[in-house]
């Protein structure tokens, strides 16, 4: 590990030197790439510098203890020594986590799909609440939310919807939300006061970047494009022009419906972007399925049919079954306060990867 850290330190200094070069400053594309790489390495370098300083403190304290005769001074040196030893242990763990292989998709924006499942109208109402939960969470993160598809039920529920979340490291957090979400509560339409269980599914897909998009070939013969008048909310002109676009991709059976823009051209572009994202995600899931060890070693992007969380309204609690975390603050969670759950998933994911790494060594 330490040889690798020394190599990172050398490379980091090289990056700093390159960023000072005039020809780099004049090349915006190269400058952006180097600055991004520097930003990614900075936490590792800072932790390693602190680690080396703590190790030096241990050596100095031990040397001084051997030479010191004053008891009061010895006690001070022992305190300093113990503090440095504790710092070394904590920094070693931090460095192991920082050196874990990064998910190449973590920096990407995402497309989130929410679909009501078992439970009829109640499931659709819950699906709409999940969207509002994520929209509020996105707001706290400074992310932009863009609607692609919204098919609602007559009572304000969400049958299925697609949304783009864009911002800083969106996939690194949202990937833990893929799976089946279960709600337990008494529906408003239930006169007998019985608790019902309903479900909604959430799929989080990383958006491909420009390089990946070039590799996704969509043959004209494989696509059917239908245009029609949009339905539901979408603005004053939504029902007066044939602005909605539906794409059918024959090889995969994927159907995309985009109606949130007033222009047919904009809806068409949005539908094709969503199709590319789904095709990219299919390839990603295929690679995960081919490597069963990868799937077993994932908290966030494994089996999407897995029931990951239960929202129990009568008891005011939320339970994430993957990490055995229960919070008694359902109202706050439904209002977008899901950071504690996501942080728990990240910590569990890191612990799992660390244990697998140790088994391989």
How would you portray this structure in words?
With 361 residues, the protein is an alpha+beta fold. The chain is built from eleven helices and eleven strands. It has helices at residues 2-19, 22-25, 28-67, 71-98, 120-141, 170-174, 210-215, 264-290, 292-296, 330-334, 339-360; strands at 110-116, 144-152, 158-166, 179-185, 196-206, 223-228, 244-249, 254-258, 307-312, 317-320, 325-327. An eight-stranded mixed sheet has the order 2-3-1-5-4-9-10-11. Strands 6-7-8 form a three-stranded antiparallel sheet, with helices on one face. β9 and β10 (317-320) form a beta hairpin. α1 crosses α3 and α3 packs antiparallel against α4 (71-98). The radius of gyration is 26 Å and the shape is globular. The chain starts with a helix and ends with a helix.
Helix content: 40-55%
Helix segment tally: 11
Instruction: Indicate the radius of gyration in whole angstroms.
Output: 26 Å
Mean pLDDT: 86
* Structural class computed from helices and strand pairing: alpha+beta
Question: Going across the major beta sheet, what is the strand order?
Answer: 2-3-1-5-4-9-10-11
Query: Any low-confidence stretches, pLDDT <50, length ≥5?
Result: 233-239
Largest sheet: 8 strands, mixed
Could you tell me the number of beta strands? 11
Note the gap between the termini. Answer: 12 Å
Q: TL;DR?
A:
The chain has 361 residues and is an alpha+beta fold. It is 50% helix and 20% strand.
